[in-house]
Amino acid sequence: MKTHRNDNSSSTPMNDQIAKVVSVFIVSVQAKLAASIGQRFNAYSAGKQKLVLVSIVAITIAILLTGLFTNSYTIPALHQSYRPATHIGMASDVNLFVRKDAQLTDSLTKK
Length: 111
Known about the structure:
By secondary structure, the protein is an all-alpha fold. It has a domain of 32 residues. The protein is 49% helix and 0% strand. Keywords: Membrane, Transmembrane, Transmembrane helix.
């Protein structure tokens, strides 16, 4: 039985059924988790509930501020050997700093 088609514009009934089963499973797990957390949270006194909420908010703010001021990606520095990208139509072996009268060619030409 062929389950994969090259035409991605329409899905097969089998794919729809699989998606339905997976989505029902995900929603049921989320509902059970929310009910469990709700029962635990409601077991606390009002003062402890406020303390838990304030601590969760404080931890979230700390994580967001840490991510704001921490460099997770640095832009690499340009070294002295940096050369600008070769323009389309210019031979790739052209050195722009030495020869200004270079012969422009396309990728199909062998000049």
